[in-house]
Write a structure and sequence with these properties.
- The chain is of the alpha+beta class and 95 residues long.
- The protein has one domain (2-94).
- The chain is 44% helix and 14% strand.
- It has a two-stranded antiparallel ribbon.
- This is Transposase.
- InterPro entries: Transposase_17_sf.
C-alpha cells in the first residue's frame, strides 16, 4: 500500500492510496482489520480514557448486529472508493 494523502474527519477517513497488487478491496479489508485491532487495544489499555466502557460497548453492540464481525466493530463495513485516473485528478483531490 502506498499512501499519498489522508484526511481524518470526525466520522470517517479519506485515503488516497495505490494498491501494489491491484486488489484495493483486499487492501482496505486488511487495513481496516489491522487498524481496528490496534485502536481497540489502545482504548482498552489506556487508563486515562474516560469513555472506555462506553466506546467498547458501542463497538460490541455494532458487532453483534453483523454476522461477519467476531467481536467488536470499529469501521463501517461499506466503502465509497473512487478510482483516480490521472495525476491531475489525484492532485485535485489532495488539494
Amino acid at each position: 500500500m502506498e499512501v499519498y494523502a489522508y484526511c481524518f474527519m470526525l466520522s470517517h477517513v479519506h485515503l488516497i492510496f495505490r494498491s501494489g497488487d491491484e486488489n484495493p478491496s483486499g487492501l482496505l479489508r486488511d487495513f481496516k482489520g489491522f487498524t481496528s485491532k490496534k485502536i481497540v487495544e489502545a482504548i482498552e489499555h489506556n487508563p486515562k480514557e474516560s469513555r472506555k466502557e462506553w466506546m467498547l460497548n458501542m463497538m460490541s453492540e455494532a458487532g453483534q448486529k453483523k454476522a461477519t464481525v467476531k467481536n467488536r466493530q470499529f469501521w463501517q463495513q461499506h466503502n465509497h472508493p473512487i478510482e483516480l485516473w490521472s495525476e491531475s485528478v489525484i492532485q485535485q483531490k489532495i488539494k
